[in-house]
Design goal:
Elements: E1 2-3, E2 6-8, E3 15-17, E4 20-22, E5 29-31, E6 34-36, E7 50-52, E8 55-57, E9 63-65, E10 78-80, E11 83-85
Parallel strand pairs: 9-11
Antiparallel strand pairs: 1-2, 2-3, 3-4, 4-5, 5-6, 6-7, 7-8, 8-9, 10-11
Amino acid sequence: MEGAGSTIEGAGSSTEGEGSTMEGAGSTIEGAGSTIDGEGSTIEGEGSATEGVGSTMEGAGSTIEGAGSTIDGEGSTIEGEGSATEG
């Protein structure tokens, strides 16, 4: 299936188009403001990581940091093995 703004091709599944691209073993989603890539369901990082405009989640286990979604302050800092919230 081919057309303006969208193309599907490759072993398994691959979707390519303006602003979004899906390709790779398992699933990979790439586009303006958000990127998901890795084998199976890995999202850039050990455990899980999510990156995007306005919010960023990255690191071993899970770390949340970014403009607009920053969580910080006295009594609201969350840290520990497998999880960390920074801002």
